[in-house]
Amino acid sequence: MEPDTKSVIGSTTYQLLRQSVDQKPEIFPVDSDKLFETAIVPNSFRAFGSKNLNVLAGKSIQVAIAYPTEKEEKIAPLRKTIESYIKQQKEKRSISINIEEFFFQVKDTGVGEQPLYPQGLVGALERIYYIQDSLLGKRDWEQRKFKQPDVQEFDRIIIPSLESDLRASTKGIYDKPNVIFYECFTGHFVAGMGTGPYVEKDIFELSQRLGDVLFDDSKAVTYGKTLMAVFPQPKMNHANWHGVVCHDDPITKAKCDRVYFIKQLCEALGEQLTEFFAKVFHP
């Protein structure tokens, strides 16, 4: 087989560059049980109680954004999305909204290092449950970089949760982000599944075999780590290998890295996010 000369990673017999799989994002309606039907798990969001937004004149709405990660490539597109929709609410209601961010380390989601569809949705849900239990004092406080905040100091607590997984389709295996935006006091949520880079079957199967042999767990060695080992690249990050195997966006010239695919999903959620934030700030 001739090497794929268009691939960013050259001189290989693998067609590593098939760009992203031509698969449209899948969007769940706001507050839809379809999320849990797809994930094949029950709805287990924790109850925080309701809280109105009858803010006194001259006061600001206090909003906590609790990210279940410290990874900047995950945080950046989620933060930009949230800020844009909160700005819309501020302008529509002529109100002041103060944002305080928290970055949680979630040690174990129960779905492994390399979940397969639909376990990415499960992992995203488990990240939300971890933060909720931590804030409500239902589990030991494990965060070392900040103290447990008092939830009653906030009018809204938004958790944007992200977990990727690998999904097989008729067009091949691809890495995709799964995102859930959840607000704790109103209980509103919205979710979606995106698209991403093509995953080479041979390398994926190699990562599974390595996981079985080394850790007795087929999910323990990720595709990105195996890709780095087989085709070492000085700028490759095993957690953000997407931009190495994909060319830049032909129209926008944006680098097709992990941030790019998360941003694409958030943009596809536009209509649903507008509804979500309207419900969160206009209960």
Automatic annotation (TrEMBL):
Highest rank taxon of the organism: Eukaryota
Name this polypeptide is given: Uncharacterized protein
Source lineage: Eukaryota, Fungi, Dikarya, Ascomycota, Pezizomycotina
